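Supplementary Methods. Inverse-folding protocol.

Structures were first reduced to a discrete structure-token string of length 102. This string, shown here, constituted the complete conditioning input.
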């Protein structure tokens, strides 16, 4: 390897290291962001109204429909507390949260 090439490579490596130290915060927070945790299985949807086939947990239409109750979490009289969504919003909720088996 020519001496010039070696010097160039070393300068590039230091450059990368420098960029990394500047953006370290961003890199780290990107990894620690509340991504969906894989160790835990997604809880299955409970049968909120077993007598209503079109109840909020009985079928999935859009994520907006689910987020009506789960964006912030609400207390629903006679039904319980809808927990606030603890992770980032994904478009297809039921790819992980299975609908109650009918
Ligand atoms: C009308 C409000 C409402 C809507 C709409 C709604 N939920 Fe829920 N959700 C609740 C309530 C209330 C609970 C708590 C049930 C309990 O504690 O037994 C709950 C609980 C949950 C849970 C925790 C597991 C469980 O079932 O106890 C998940 C996950 C969930 N909902 C996801 C969803 C998804 C996905 C959708 C869209 C298909 C959705 N919810 C639509 C009210 C709602
Ligand atoms: C990639 C898989 C995945 C998708 C897609 C997904 N979730 Fe989840 N969800 C999880 C996992 C895993 C947990 C459990 C996290 C924990 O307990 O820390 C969870 C937990 C929840 C909880 C809290 C349940 C409780 O008992 O506290 C709610 C509410 C919820 N999700 C709603 C939703 C909604 C609404 C959508 C669609 C916008 C959605 N999820 C999409 C994987 C997913």
């Amino acid at each position: 390897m020519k001496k010039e090439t070696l010097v160039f490579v070393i300068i590039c490596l230091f450059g990368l290291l420098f960029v990394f130290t500047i953006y370290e915060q961003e890199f780290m927070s990107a990894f620690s962001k509340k991504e969906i945790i894989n160790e835990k299985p997604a809880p299955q949807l409970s049968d909120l109204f077993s007598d209503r086939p079109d109840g909020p947990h009985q079928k999935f239409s859009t994520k907006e429909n689910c987020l009506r109750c789960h964006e912030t979490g609400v207390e629903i009289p006679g039904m319980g507390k809808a927990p606030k969504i603890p992770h980032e919003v994904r478009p297809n909720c039921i790819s992980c949260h299975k609908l109650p088996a009918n």
